[in-house]
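INFO batch 0412 | record 1 of 1 | parsing
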Amino acid sequence: MTKNITKAQIPQKDSKVISYPNLVDSESLKENSGVIRNPGTDFRLDKISNIAINKSAVERRCTNYGTRRSIKKDKQAAWLLKAITLMDLTTLSGDDTEARVRRLCSKAKQPISNKLEKILGTESLDLSVAAVCVYHDMLASAKKALNNSKINLAAVSTGFPAGLSPLPLRLKEIEYSVDSGANEIDIVISRRHVLEGNWEELYKEVKMFREKCGDAHMKTILATGELGNLSNIAKASQVCMMAGADFIKTSTGKEPTNATLPVSLSYGSNDT
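INFO prediction complete | emitting tokens
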């Protein structure tokens, strides 16, 4: 990390870059923090039928990334700060307690130390993570701990992590989370729809989830380690975006294989 930064650039969500002397223009940062909803589209099988990911080509590309550094010094520090603002701090364990959730929320509001903030000149930026994600039973504790902050409150729903509970119950889980104060909903898909090639059924399911979310942003977890291959992952991501997913996430964190670089490169691909 570079010390004594005098100028850095924090990329915004619209891919434009705004310069911040000493990284202190907090008002500009807040003005550019809005996220435009994905309205979704009608289901189009022809949009995914020709998707085929060349695994070998993707893996060859991935081997090059570890040796490349395109950004350095103050710009690298700025990107790292930007990454913090996009993180979800999460606790999804069977032994979660209210005290653990409060500690997580405190970390979410102060993700880097006061000492490091002074070194970087970022005190007035009021940096925090994007969201705190918990199970339903912990929503009330998290909401109280995040009071008067700009941090979003996320809840896992729809039979997390396997997504195998009855559909009416999965829909009710979303309603419960929204009513309890969550403004982001992390849903999990039915993996069987992907493995069996039932793309329209996947679309219908995710669309129902989106409708139940209402104004809450929907983050769709694909559980990529259980979808068979990169082509399935790319098709599933496209179908979920058609259905109105605001965000696509790789995994629940509970599968043997979770987020990988080849999977990330395959998300938006239609040929490789």
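INFO post-check: Confidence is low (pLDDT under 50) at residues 1-10, 12-33.
INFO record closed
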